[in-house]
Fold this sequence. Notes:
Elements: E1 8-12, H1 17-28, E2 32-37, H2 40-51, E3 56-60, H3 66-80, E4 85-88, H4 103-128, E5 134-138, H5 142-145, H6 152-171, E6 177-183, H7 190-195, H8 199-206, H9 217-228, E7 239-242
Parallel strand pairs: 1-2, 1-4, 2-3, 4-5, 5-6, 6-7
Helix pairs in contact: 1-9, 3-4, 4-6
Residues 12-13, 15-19, 37-39, 42, 61-64, 89-93, 112, 138, 140, 183-184, 186, 188, 191 line the site of nicotinamide-adenine-dinucleotide.
Amino acid sequence: MKRFEGKVALVTGAAHGIGKQIAKQFAEEGANTVIVDYNPETGTKTAAELSEIQKSIFARANVASLEDMQAVREQTFAEFGRIDILVLNAGIAFKGTMNDFTLDDWNRLIGINLTGLYTTVKAFYNDFLTNNGSIVYISSGSALSGTGGAVAYPAAKAGGEGLIRGLAKELGPKGVNVNAIAPRLIDTGEMMRVNYPTQADLDAVLKKIPVRRFGTVQDVANLALFLADKANSYIQGQTILLDGGRTIA
Ligand SMILES: NC(=O)c1ccc[n+]([C@@H]2O[C@H](COP(=O)([O-])OP(=O)(O)OC[C@H]3O[C@@H](n4cnc5c(N)ncnc54)[C@H](O)[C@@H]3O)[C@@H](O)[C@H]2O)c1
């Protein structure tokens, strides 16, 4: 029997990048998946791709909207009749100084990266009171280091970690595991090209990573599945830094 057979895993921002890989590995391990994303083209394509492995549906939503997430809950139950795992992954990043950032920029980023956690958990909250499920949040090393873009991004990620710790205390007695992953320097393609445009830039940053490589989407997905797995249920309310040792170097 596969590790997540019979389970339903929902991943936000799963059309692309880290979220897509997490959803794919859940499918490979036997879970049915719900691909939540606001991009209908890539979302539909990803769900079709994953359905070759295990049943997967696309649910279009903006995670900043509670109404959208309540509709996702309806769609999930209409299709699968249950939910076991939430992966809170959807996020955006802008770069710029405090002066470059308007209040609208701030509100948009906080709406997706922080309020998006509230809306997702809120929509499924009552289900998690009885399902012995798992919730995994994809934070960022920048919650700790303050790097990774403008101030709103690390502020949202640090806020998300607070939410996760509160939720871990609240839902732990109900049998729900709630944890976070804080990745740094994950090579998803675009990020590398924007942040490190030349080979010299890449070489310079590599020298600062003790394991001498960038992280991969598989690294993040492996840890997400580990934290969602009830074999590891004594881990609760934690944020695991996934950074090749960069933060201690
Ligand atoms: N890539 C990295 O190095 C890195 C490092 C640390 C943390 N993270 C975090 O990991 C998560 C995934 O990052 P990624 O690099 O895979 O990003 P990505 O941009 O490749 O993918 C993000 C996905 O989220 C979707 N999305 C964006 N806003 C949305 C919204 N409002 N509602 C629904 N879907 C939305 C996008 O359409 C996209 O499919 C993010 O939370 C990011 O902050 C990434």
